[in-house]
Design goal:
Layout lengths: L1 H16 L12 H16 L3 H4 L15 H6 L2 E6 L9 E6 L4 E6 L5 H7 L4 E2 L9 E2 H24 L4 E7 L1 H15 L8 E5 L7 H10 L2 E6 L20 E4 L12 E4 L45
Parallel strand pairs: 3-6, 6-7, 7-8, 8-9
Antiparallel strand pairs: 1-2, 2-3, 4-5, 9-10
Helix pairs in contact: 5-6, 6-7
Amino acid sequence: MRFYLSTVLTVAAALVSAAPSPIRPRDISTNELSQFNFWVQYAAAAYCQPNYAGEASSKLSCVVGNCPAVEQAGASIFYSFSNSTPTDTAGYIAIDSTNQAIILAFRGSYSVRNWAADVTFTYEDPGLCPGCQAETGFWNSWALVRDHVVEQLDHAIAQHPGYELVIVGHSLGAAVATLAAADIRGREGGQPSASLYAFASPRVANTALAKYITAQNNNYRFTHTNDPVPQLPTLSMGYVHVSPEYWITAPDNATVRESEVEVLDGAVNWNGNTGTATVPDVPDVAEFDAHHWYFEEVDACLGPGIPFK
């Protein structure tokens, strides 16, 4: 009886705290839209095997044609990582000298080990701030590659002083990118101004951690129409989002206009993606098409099937 009452109170508290934001959403500017269209291409490139398993100094490319601006910029791989951890965390560090940026990109779900990380949904203390709890699978996906990635990132920053640091990812990659950004910004000698572009990220944090990451600023968290992935793990489990939310209302496979991206504040805001579920706090996982389309088909480089590796 005590457990049941505790569960009911947890769910009730989550739904009460999820009242619609009284702040009127705003549209984005043409310059912002241009930036979003650009940085998402680095998240798209993270799905292409030659990039997350490429040799240093080789150029980033997308055989499916969904990162033309990255290819035009001549961005090159500084460090790549994949298939070396139980979670199969994969991605790359790239140098974009045209735009004076260092990019840390994480691949979204691809292997069985990725999916196992996706569905853990238990808490772990990441040691980032008092009372902060992160989703275990997402945090471990970062923690298992952190030492090598941070070491290489420090080398890249030392060799390219003044370059902007941008951290990107889509889906699972966005979840890992969010926690990596929080960690990299907050560590001693870290990069507090690093920008985060998280496309279709699931929830990664409890309220304390979400507030901590939100307060770091430079967070661009995107959702698309009724994509169910950002609605997981559920509010009743105690998870909330980093703010603000950039909610794309354009249909699938369509050019996104400025008026079709609404900026919404709050760890929970029913006026955006969270409010699209048919039943509150119950994602419709059958409605998955919107998950692929974030200014473009982000995961188009993903091969068919799920490899058992």
